[in-house]
Specification:
Blueprint: E1 3-6, E2 13-16, E3 19-22, E4 25-28, H1 33-38, E5 47-53, E6 58-64, E7 72-78, E8 80-87, E9 98-104, E10 109-113, E11 117-123, E12 128-134, E13 143-145, H2 164-167
Antiparallel strand pairs: 1-2, 2-10, 3-4, 5-12, 6-11, 6-13, 7-10, 7-12, 8-9, 8-11
The chain binds dTDP-4-keto-6-deoxyglucose (T46).
Length: 188
């Protein structure tokens, strides 16, 4: 059954799924409504999607601005990524803090991000598949980002493959956050 590990960003948790193996391969459950409710995690998901990335690709750092902001959960279904989250919530004790977590099909680890955090990753192997659930539908006008290399994080790549959009995001130092930290809601 799913377990969570708190991180140094309030409301951001590592999700540890149980990877069940047998001679055919593996079975990993990434969402279970009663368990998520028991863990105090959101269950009001509105969209899910997945992407595949070649080795050395960076996607991020993305978020959706209010009123389309969302909580997000991600799992790496194939390959391996270094998943990165940065806290953009004014007043958070971890404001501006960036953390990285190795996610892979083998380790069954996912990440749960509350609203007000930006998300990205670098693919560490070819064809790394990332699966997402988010609590709001895609809103192109609110689908924003921060330059991947402007956060306080030591990426293992120096010249990654980026989309033109990701190459053009503002730097964190030039960004005025629309998010405020809510100590009551930190668990979500
Ligand atoms: C997110 C999204 C994208 N799109 C379209 C827009 C583009 O034509 C195409 C690829 O979009 P984008 O380059 O933004 O995809 P990623 O760079 O993988 O972005 C994702 O990866 C980062 C790391 C995240 O954390 C975000 O959840 C998500 O934005 O799909 C849609 O039609 N619906 C959607 O919900």
């Amino acid at each position: 059954m799913m377990d969570t590990e708190p991180t140094d960003i309030p409301g951001c948790y590592v999700l540890q799924a149980k990877v069940l193996g047998d001679p055919r391969g593996t079975f990993t459950k990434t969402f279970h409504m009663p368990r998520f409710e028991e863990l105090g995690l959101r269950t009001d998901w509105r969209e899910e999607y997945f992407s595949t990335s070649a080795k050395g690709v960076v996607r991020g750092m993305h978020f959706q601005s209010p009123p389309a902001d969302h909580a997000k959960m991600v799992f790496c279904l194939t390959g391996e990524v270094l998943d990165v989250v940065v806290d953009l919530r004014r007043g958070s004790p971890a404001f501006g803090k960036a953390l990285g977590f190795t996610l892979s099909a083998e380790n069954g680890r996912g990440l749960y991000l509350p609203t007000g955090c930006a998300h990205g990753f670098v693919s560490m192997r070819d064809a790394s598949g990332m699966y997402y659930k988010v609590t709001s539908v895609h809103a192109p006008d609110h689908d924003l980002g921060i330059a991947w290399d402007s956060i306080d994080f030591d990426w293992p790549v120096r010249a990654p493959a980026l989309s033109a959009r990701d190459a053009a995001h503002p730097r964190l130092s030039d960004f005025t956050t629309p998010f405020a930290f809510d100590p009551e809601g930190a668990a979500l």
